[in-house]
Automatic annotation (TrEMBL):
Keywords: Transferase. GO terms for molecular function: heptaprenyl diphosphate synthase activity. Pfam families: HEPPP_synt_1. GO terms for biological process: menaquinone biosynthetic process. Its EC number is 2.5.1.30. It comes from Croceifilum oryzae. This is Heptaprenyl diphosphate synthase. The keyword Transferase applies.
Length: 228
């Protein structure tokens, strides 16, 4: 536990240094680093026994992609007359583009071209789904962030064949932690969260499930429960 927590803290610190831009910070505040998402990715790639340096590359790239999607989602669509707010909107667009460029940069510098293809396809699926929601073809999800997280996690899980390590039910195991992005956004959230935890427990208590990962998830969920 200590080793994994220490590694996660270092990854988050390195990510913060990577995405920090003084102009954006002064005008928009601290970058929207997805801490839970990074932690989920770390557990997923550790379970797949991905080498440390490669794991760090994919976590940083995927986090930057997640930040780009989240930031672009915050851009107001209505006409803005106020000059100050118009400037903020322009900077928000540039911030999303900046995080997106870091996603490509991290994987390209490591020669992970197949990784770029895989995560770019996840981005396309995410944007297609959001367009259908905004055009009324699908019901609007209570949490856009969860859609983005699921698509990126699924792409990485497929890329590293996670089902051979954890099992085909890996998404059910992670669902309670993904649902935390929806906290307070709609009624009945706590019931959904507790039901998801019950389903996850049935899987991680099976003999084939990695013991260390079960302990990590149990401790994490217990911590989140105390914070509810």
């Amino acid at each position: 536990m200590t080793s994994i927590s220490t590694d996660q803290n270092k990854i988050l610190m390195d990510l913060e240094r990577l995405v920090m831009n003084s102009d954006l910070f002064l005008n928009l505040g601290a970058p929207p680093i997805p801490t839970r998402f990074v932690r989920l990715l770390d557990l997923l790639l550790t379970a797949c026994e991905v080498p440390e340096e490669r794991k760090k590359t994919f976590i940083q790239a995927a986090a930057c992609l997640h930040m780009a999607l989240t930031t672009h989602e915050q851009i107001p669509l209505q006409t803005i007359e106020n000059e100050g707010l118009h400037r903020v909107r322009q900077l928000t667009v540039l911030a999303g583009d900046f995080y997106s460029s870091l996603f490509y940069q991290q994987l390209a510098m490591a020669g992970e071209i197949d990784g770029i293809v895989s995560l770019s396809q996840a981005t396309s699926r995410t944007n297609e789904r959001k367009m259908k929601m905004y055009c009324g073809e699908e019901s609007v999800s209570p949490s856009i962030r969860k859609i983005e997280s699921v698509e990126i996690l699924t792409a990485i899980a497929d890329f590293f064949l996670v089902e051979h390590r954890i099992g085909k039910e890996w998404m059910i195991v992670l669902l309670p932690l993904l649902l935390l992005d929806e906290q307070g956004e709609h009624t009945g959230w706590q019931d959904r969260f507790h039901d998801a935890v019950s389903q996850a427990e049935k899987i991680w208590r099976q003999s084939h499930f990695p013991v260390w990962l079960r302990r990590e998830l149990e401790q994490w969920i217990e911590q989140e429960r105390r914070n509810l």
